[in-house]
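Late entry, evening session. Most of the bench is empty. Finally got around to the prediction I had been postponing all week. Sequence below, unchanged from the version circulated by S.P.
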Amino acid sequence: MKLSKLLLATSALTVAGVGANAQEMADSMTLVSWGGAYQDSQNKAYLEPYLEAHPDVSASWDESSAEAVAKLRAMNEAGNITWDLVDVVASDALRLCDEGLAMELDFNEVLAEGDDGSSPEDDFGDLLINDCFVPQIVYSTTFGYRTDMVGDTPPTSVCDVFDLETYPGKRALQKRPIDNMEWALFCDGVEKDEIYDVLGTDEGVDRALAKLDTIKDQVVWWSAGAETPQLLADGEVVMGSTFNGRLFSAIAEQDQPIDMLWDMQSFDLDGWIIPEGLPEDRLARAMDFLKFATDTQRLADQAKYISYGPARDSSAPLVGQHAELGIEMAPHMPTDPANATNVHLYDYEWWADNRDDLDAKFQSWLAQ
């Protein structure tokens, strides 16, 4: 999939001016993220250093990113935007930008240059998928499995998830169509480069759901990223999908009997959007924090706490050891060559266009 940037809108220059020149900044912020190990890494890498440098500022977290689109729609309709900066996945950023719920930004005006002198646009490159989204990390959704529950032949293919005979037991899958539909088609014989063509047809949707039907009664459906590591730790599932950083935490930090299945890991981006409609003082504070939190050093610092790759090219050489464990983090990144031999390139734009329709069909199938 080719990631494209839209042309910068004139309004972005106005936004940049507000962020840079406003004399009054709000003394508090509400930041929205996902909770768990990921939010903790943001807190340590971005927020704590920012608050230390700005002792008169306070901030609180709202763990509602999974509902960001619906909640921002409702806030906009009510004319009451209570969030200042929202962490979202790429496909949600596309929807929010298209609907006018996220602000358009001139990245070279509002973000810090790379430590190597590169412009923000060059440093982030193709990860700037639209004019509203400032990426922080490259992560993947992949599978973990209990090493003591898979016998002498651990799973090596994502299609082993559908093999109940060789690997009996419950599976954990996210309660959404994204990734599940693609994995189902791939394991039903569809070539990777044809998955979205097939999924774009009614027959393709039915085919994916039929494949998922083969394991449906053995699936525990999860909504929060922390659920699968806990289900694995408790031995309630033999394998399950979740975000690679959550699995790293369970394996490296908690020493659980879990290993990772990188095959067909689904690459994705996570990053910030600023809601449209903030008053000037809150917008100025959000802009100031955004510039700080997405500079070269801060994105590299996040990798000290979780195994997600920084979105800036200039940050990659600064990725070192885990802050507490002292282990090198680079081999645990989804982008490490050893982990990326068979990668699923998640199509943000396709899902932004088709998400609402597929969500409805998927939820209807779940209810059957």
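Two things to note before I forget:
The radius of gyration is 21 Å.
Confidence is low (pLDDT under 50) at residues 1-22.
Will write this up properly tomorrow.
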